């Protein structure tokens, strides 16, 4: 009997140590020599397939640099990928669960060995600084390890106990559902991309992976690692392409069994709608797992340790330039401590350095022109919706480099219903909202349609207990930043308009990709 080793999250690299900084710089050099400029074709049925057109990935911190290219799949390629995946499913579904899990563990070992390379590629392709890149690669390794070890628990009949019944033998089987499509965002191009593949694949499904256009290279590197780990041909089909074209084709297709999507609310709701429509010849109800946006708030009340609160605000707001679904974009402060908290928040934010991911700046460029333009439009709106206390400019330049640079921006006295307080901006822009008292603060926190992350800085036990029950967020944090969920430790996912609360990195996540069959034999 196989003994399942206990899952342990990866420790993070300490970049206050000079030797770790030097190792990162060496990895940047290696990646520049070996990976920058690379082209990733599609992978269909284990074969590399190129396309007439290409997608180009730019360095957001220096837009004169092309980081690399990927193929650009057509709907014909998507059709081939789907049919090939169904053929591969015939044998993959029969593999033992623990044999499938060992492929993830092998992939984890390869990624551990290439950890700094993956980090360095993200610094160049999407502008992550060292710590942001490192926590993401650690999360990617954690997903592989956690889902592998979780899967082993489902093997055979042992997974779900049924109640004893005289004269019969009853058993509950967990079975894979079939072929699905995984559509992922650019902001966690390594961890989310990999996690959204690892879970359905280890459960015995075959998956077509459609990465975001801005992060095709890091996705390509992750696919290489899974194939090197021994994933059979057709189990993972790699299909970089345009969401509106191949994404749409696959989500509406009669033979797509499930869709796992992480991205914006608008696209997620659209997918939910088209997937619900039954196509001719379709013989199942598609499973749809959605992880969408947020407008995440942190409450600070008059009992809070204000230093802890300010640290939580700065870390939660500006990590990876606020480009996290979990980022703190609303700071909700009780009136009596408003000036002290906001003053501290502005002062601490002023110290953040803007520059490139490769320079390890605190704030780097946002991902692309569309994001830059969108954030700029909110900066233009800001003076009419509040007081701009810091920043306010989309400069498009830092330290002589042209890129999608936006100043870290804090807007004070924003009204709870204002657009700045309600709409996901997905950049380094925080709206500060003044609350009369604790109850008013909690009402403000719950006044959006989203429900992803949230937090409370308070030393009042009764209030924390009230928030535990009433604060509408899939991930709620007390007296710390509201970002940085760790796989297995803080299962992650939102509800309300933030998603289907499927809790990635949680004990039930694999069940999203399985169906149960009860078999009864009468003696
Ligand atoms: P988008 O919704 O713009 O894109 C996500 C993916 O969907 C991309 O691969 C995109 O392809 C694809 N896509 C676009 N249109 C369609 C379509 N019609 N059919 C199928 N697929 C389509 O999100 P972003 O990449 O900009 O990511 C940022 C968003 O993701 C934010 O809202 C953020 O909050 C959310 N997010 C949520 C997380 C969570 O766990 N809840 C975690 C991380 C991010 P293409 O690139 O070709 O357009």
- Give the bound compounds: NADPH dihydro-nicotinamide-adenine-dinucleotide phosphate
What is the tally of beta strands? Answer: 23
Tell me, briefly, the overall form. globular
Radius of gyration: 23 Å
Question: Main β-sheet, in a few words?
Answer: 7 strands, mixed
Structure class: alpha/beta
In what order do the strands lie side by side in the largest sheet? Answer: 14-17-18-13-12-20-21
Which stretches are poorly predicted, pLDDT < 50 over at least 5 residues? none
Describe the structure.
The protein contains 15 helices and 23 strands. The protein has helices at 18-34, 75-92, 97-113, 115-125, 130-152, 191-202, 216-228, 243-252, 265-276, 306-318, 335-350, 369-385, 419-422, 438-445, 461-470; strands spanning 39-40, 42-44, 47-49, 54-58, 66-71, 168-176, 179-183, 206-210, 236-238, 258-262, 287-291, 296-300, 328-334, 387-390, 397-398, 401-402, 409-412, 429-435, 450-451, 453-457, 475-478, 495-496, 514-522. The strands form seven sheets. A seven-stranded mixed β-sheet has the order 14-17-18-13-12-20-21, with helices on both faces. Helix 4 (115-125) packs across helix 5 and helix 10 packs across helix 11 (335-350). The relative contact order is 0.13. Bound molecules: NADPH dihydro-nicotinamide-adenine-dinucleotide phosphate.
């Amino acid at each position: 009997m196989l003994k399942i080793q206990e899952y342990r999250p990866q420790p993070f690299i300490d970049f206050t140590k000079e030797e770790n900084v030097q190792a990162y710089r060496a990895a940047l050099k290696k990646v520049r020599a070996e990976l920058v400029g690379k082209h990733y074709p599609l992978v269909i049925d284990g074969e590399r397939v190129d396309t007439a057109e290409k997608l180009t990935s730019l360095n957001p911190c220096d837009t004169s640099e092309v980081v690399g290219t990927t193929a650009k799949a057509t709907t014909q390629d998507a059709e081939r990928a789907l049919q090939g995946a169904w053929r591969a499913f015939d044998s993959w579904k029969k593999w033992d669960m623990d044999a499938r899990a060992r492929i993830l563990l092998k992939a984890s070992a390869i990624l551990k060995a290439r950890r700094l390379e993956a980090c360095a590629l993200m610094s160049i392709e999407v502008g992550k600084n060292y710590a942001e890149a490192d926590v993401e690669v650690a999360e990617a390794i954690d997903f592989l390890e956690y889902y592998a070890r979780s899967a082993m628990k489902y093997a055979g009949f042992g997974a779900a106990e049924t109640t004893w019944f005289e004269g019969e033998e009853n058993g509950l089987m967990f079975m894979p559902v079939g072929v699905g499509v995984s559509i992922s965002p650019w902001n966690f191009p390594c961890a989310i991309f990999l996690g959204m593949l690892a879970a359905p694949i280890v459960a015995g499904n075959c998956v077509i992976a459609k990465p975001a256009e801005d992060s095709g290279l890091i996705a390509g590197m992750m696919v290489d690692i899974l194939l090197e780990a021994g994933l059979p041909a057709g189990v993972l089909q790699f299909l970089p392409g345009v969401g509106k074209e191949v994404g749409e084709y696959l989500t509406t297709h009669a033979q797509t069994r499930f869709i796992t999507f992480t991205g914006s609310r608008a696209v997620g709701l659209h997918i939910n709608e088209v997937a619900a429509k039954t196509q001719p010849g379709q013989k199942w109800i598609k499973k749809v797992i959605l992880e969408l946006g947020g407008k995440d708030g942190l409450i600070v009340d008059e009992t809070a340790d204000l230093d802890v609160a300010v640290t939580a605000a700065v870390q939660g707001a500006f990590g990876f330039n606020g480009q996290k679904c979990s980022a703190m974009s609303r700071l909700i402060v009780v009136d009596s401590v408003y000036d002290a908290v906001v003053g501290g928040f502005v002062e601490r934010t002023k110290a953040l350095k803007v520059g490139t991911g490769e320079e390890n700046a605190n704030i780097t460029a946002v991902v692309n022109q569309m994001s830059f333009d969108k954030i700029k439009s909110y900066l233009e709106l800001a003076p009419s919706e509040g007081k701009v206390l810091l920043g306010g400019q989309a400069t498009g330049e830092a330290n002589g480099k042209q890129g999608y640079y936006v100043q870290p921006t804090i807007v004070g006295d924003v009204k709870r219903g204002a657009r700045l307080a309600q709409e996901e901006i997905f950049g380094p822009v925080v709206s500060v909202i003044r609350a009369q008292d604790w109850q008013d603060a909690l009402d403000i926190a719950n006044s959006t349609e989203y429900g992803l992350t949230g937090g409370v800085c308070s030393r009042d036990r009764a209030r924390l207990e009230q928030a535990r029950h009433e604060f509408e967020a899939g991930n709620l944090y007390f007296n710390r930043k509201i970002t940085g969920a760790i796989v297995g430790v803080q299962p992650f996912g939102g509800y309300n308009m933030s998603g289907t609360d499927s809790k990635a990195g949680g004990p039930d996540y694999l069940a999203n990709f399985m169906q149960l069959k009860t078999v009864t034999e009468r003696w």
